[in-house]
Write a structure and sequence with these properties.
Strand order of the largest sheet: 1-2-3
Distance between the termini: 81 Å
Strand content: 5-15%
Structural class: mainly alpha
Number of strands: 12
Largest sheet: 3 strands, parallel
Number of helices: 20
Radius of gyration: 32 Å
Amino acid sequence: MANDLNGPVRVRFAPSPTGFLHVGGVRTAIYNELLRLHCGGVFVLRIEDTDKARSDEAMTRQIQDALSWTGIRWDEGPFLQSERQPRHAERATELLAADQAYRCFCTSEELEAQRAEAQKAGGSFRYPRTCAHLSEDEIARRMEAGQTFVVRFRAPEVNIKFFDLVRGAMEFGPESIDDFILVRSDGSPTYHMSVVCDDIDMAITHVIRGEDHLSNTPKHVPLFQAFGAAVPTFAHLPLILGPDKKRLSKRFGATSVEEFRAEGILPEALYNYMALLGWSPGDDQEILLREEMGRIFDVDRLNVSAAVFDREKLLWMNGQYLIAATLEEIRPHLDPFLAEAALTGADPARLSTVLDLHKTRARTLRELVQSIVFYFRDEIPYEADLTKKFLADPELPVHLAALRDRFAEVEFDKDALEAALRAVAEERGLKPSVLIHPTRMALSGTNCGPPLFDLVAAMGKDETSRHLGHFIAYLRRGGALPEHQD
RNA sequence: GUCCCCAUCGUCUAGAGGUUAGGACAUCGCCCUUUCAAGGCGGUAACACGGGUUCGAGUCCCGUUGGGGAUACCA
C-alpha cells in the first residue's frame, strides 16, 4: 500500500465555491499545505465549480482571498474544473471505447421508482444494470430514436482496497458501489468523473479531504484503476462539529473565514487553532506558527474522531497572538477596525502607546479598538450605573478639583503622577483610592482598564485636565446632562 | 431502512498492555493589584456500557449504546 511520505508530494485543495470559505475547508487546506510543507512538492488549488448554478467568478475570487488572508499558499492553480469539462468528456469516451463504461437509457423516473421500492423493502438501492449489456444495434437504435442516455461506469465486482492515512488500510465490498454515472444526459461529467480525471491529470499523490468523501472513495479507486493510473493515498479528515455535536452551523456563531476576519481574529491565530483541531504535535506545544507546524507535521498524528469547534479557545489563542504582536505586525489587520471607529488618522505614537496598554485586555482586534477609542474623543461618555457612588460624595468635586490643579503642575509621567495623587490624598486625609476611582471614570468612562497612572500619562496633560473638569461639572450637576444641548 | 466511520475531563487533546491517566481552553480558589485583564500558584473534572483475551486492559477482540457520515443525472 502506498504510504510513501519520504519524497515530494502533490496535494490539492478542491473547494466548491459556495460563497464563503467554511472553517472545515480551511482546516482541510491547512493539512494539505502542512503535508506539502513537510514533504516538499506541490500544492494545487482547484476550484470545483461544475455546479454552474451556484458558482461564479466572484466566489472563486473570494476563496482565493480567504485562503491568502489565512496565510495559506498554493503552488499551482487555481484551476477551474468547469474549464476542464471537455477533457473529462473525452476521458469518458475512452472508457466507453474500452467497455469500462456503457450507455444507460433508463430515465430518472424509472430509477426513482426502483429506488423507492428498494428502500421500502429495507435494502439499499443499486442500479440493476438494466442497460449493462445492450447490443450495439439496440444502442444505435435508441440513439437514433433520440433517447437520451447517461454514461455509467462498469464497476468491477471485487473488494475495493485503499490506504487512508487517517484510518489505515480500508476495504469495501463490491456492494458498496454500483454502476454510478460518469456523464449526465446533458453530456456534462459528474463530480466523480471530474475529480478522478483531474487528480490523474494533475498527478496528485495524496488526497486529503473531509470524511464526507470517505464513502465516495470506493467509487474513485476503481476509476483510477480503469484508467490505469496510480491510486493516490487518501486522508479523510473527521468533521468539525458544533457544541451540539452536530455539523457546525451558523447558529453558534461564525463559521467562515470572512466572519472570523470581521470579528477581529488574526490569521495566524485562526491557522494555529484550526491546525490543532484534529492534529497535535504530540508534546504540549499549542502556540505554533505555520512554518514550525510544517516542520513537525506528521500525518500519523491526525485524529480519527470528529472535533467540536471551541470558540472560547480560539478567542483565547487570538488573545495570545494579540499580546505577542507589535503594532507594526498587526497594523494591516487593525486598519479596518480603526477605520470603523474613525481613528484612521490617529497619531501613531499615541495609538501605539494605548494599544500596548490595552492589548492584554482584548481577545479580538475589534474589542481592542473599541477599548481605546475614548483616548481620541472630546467627550467621555460615563457608564451611568457606575457613577452613582461618586455622586453620593458631596466633597468629591472639591477633591478632584485639587487633584486637577496638582496634575497641572507636574511632569506627565506615571511616577510623578502617582506621587502627585498620593500627595493630594494625604493632604486631604483621604485614601488614594478615593481619588483613583473617580479619576479613572473621568478619563475613561468606565471602572476597568490599565493601571491608572499609565492611563493618565497616555491621556496627556491637556486632555486629563479637560476630562477632569467635565467630570467635576457632571458631579456638581448631580449627574444630569449639560443643560445646553444646542 | 441499508452501508460505512467514530467513542479519554464540559471542550481540544497526550496516552502505541503495567501511568498518582499528563497538558490546554473553560470553570472555581489564592497570589499580584486602585479596577479590569494579563501573569503566577492551586482545585474540581474523563477512559460510554457489557463481555472476553491477558498475571495485568484507557490501550487488543466481540457485542450494546450513543454520535456522525454516505446512500442523487449535488459537489
